[in-house]
Amino acid sequence: MFEYFLSVLGQNGWKIEFTAEKWVIALDESGHRGLALLRYPADYREEIGFAPPKSAYAGIRYWQAIVFCSAGVDSQMLKKVPAGTQFWFWDLAQGNVFPFPAPRDRGMVAWFRQIAEGTYAEPPFGRESAKRTFLGLHSSASPEAKFVPVVTYALIAAIIAVFALMTWAGGSTHMAVLVAFGAKVDSLIREGQIWRLLTANFIHIGFFHLAFNLYALWVIGPFAEKLFGHWVYLLIYLLSGIGGNLSSYLFSPAVSAGASAAIFGLLGALLFYSWRRPQLWRSGLGINLIVIIAVNLILGIIQPEIDNFAHLGGLMSGLILAALSHTFLSVRGAGSANNHRP
């Protein structure tokens, strides 16, 4: 596959150069955009870091790196990914290709999938414009900036803003305030206020409940957002929150609120993501996720005020959503009456 890919580039006007660092450099006809290709050994002892000599490639404004992994993809690889370069990991063992970080242009992803599945005998481009679309290298392309998890920041800001308004309105632990701001109340949902399945995810019962969930979102959110991309990440978060509250509505009559159903959805999506990649799973990510999920579910059993039905609903929603979107994500109240979800 490595040699075939090089031949495709060569046949379409790319200049191929071999470096002493085992990277193969491909320069487009304009001389302003470059691809760096690496055939990664099975023992994973080599680093992924890519830094072409500036003197030799001073005219290159935008780099993308393609790593061909004969024995699968390991999470340790991602630690070596430098900022400013879009990486594509081609898992030859599983026939998958996935980007890191999530790319802005997924045209290259579709072509990778077709090559990996053997559905194209010839390269899917001919004209110059088509070739640039295939490579995701548009004339206006500029170097990838450092990834900013803007959706995570926006969610955190929204949750803090809601908590501040609840505090100003009388306090987030007061039942009247919880109901007014959209907590999950089964009787009101039955009357048609189904929007509470969404709004309950932005409401928290007390400062410690807020702090716990914000910390979890701050730790998990940026990593998940970088893997899945901004919009898919947001959909998983919101729909998992709704799924978790729906589960709570079906199985728990208590008033409840909190972002942890959505956070469990992110954990479920990450669990599916790592399970689909054996090397990533065996690297420890999968086991770590299972431990985190198990510990939090056990806490929910020990502490009856925690809404474990929402946790389980969010977790299952995240797993299902990640499975459904796999084609796009990878290539190939206070007291006993109020349940909260720390």
From TrEMBL:
<feature type="domain" description="Peptidase S54 rhomboid">
    <location>
        <begin position="192"/>
        <end position="325"/>
    </location>
</feature>
<feature type="transmembrane region" description="Helical">
    <location>
        <begin position="309"/>
        <end position="331"/>
    </location>
</feature>
<feature type="transmembrane region" description="Helical">
    <location>
        <begin position="285"/>
        <end position="303"/>
    </location>
</feature>
<dbReference type="InterPro" id="IPR050925">
    <property type="entry name" value="Rhomboid_protease_S54"/>
</dbReference>
<feature type="transmembrane region" description="Helical">
    <location>
        <begin position="202"/>
        <end position="220"/>
    </location>
</feature>
<keyword id="KW-0812">Transmembrane</keyword>
<feature type="transmembrane region" description="Helical">
    <location>
        <begin position="147"/>
        <end position="169"/>
    </location>
</feature>
<dbReference type="GO" id="GO:0016020">
    <property type="term" value="C:membrane"/>
</dbReference>
<keyword id="KW-0472">Membrane</keyword>
<feature type="transmembrane region" description="Helical">
    <location>
        <begin position="250"/>
        <end position="273"/>
    </location>
</feature>
<keyword id="KW-1133">Transmembrane helix</keyword>
<keyword id="KW-0378">Hydrolase</keyword>
<dbReference type="InterPro" id="IPR022764">
    <property type="entry name" value="Peptidase_S54_rhomboid_dom"/>
</dbReference>
<dbReference type="GO" id="GO:0004252">
    <property type="term" value="F:serine-type endopeptidase activity"/>
</dbReference>
<dbReference type="Pfam" id="PF01694">
    <property type="entry name" value="Rhomboid"/>
</dbReference>
<dbReference type="InterPro" id="IPR035952">
    <property type="entry name" value="Rhomboid-like_sf"/>
</dbReference>
<comment type="similarity">
    <text>Belongs to the peptidase S54 family.</text>
</comment>
<protein>
    <submittedName>
        <fullName>Peptidase S54, rhomboid domain protein</fullName>
        <ecNumber>3.4.21.-</ecNumber>
        <ecNumber>3.4.21.105</ecNumber>
    </submittedName>
</protein>
<feature type="transmembrane region" description="Helical">
    <location>
        <begin position="227"/>
        <end position="244"/>
    </location>
</feature>
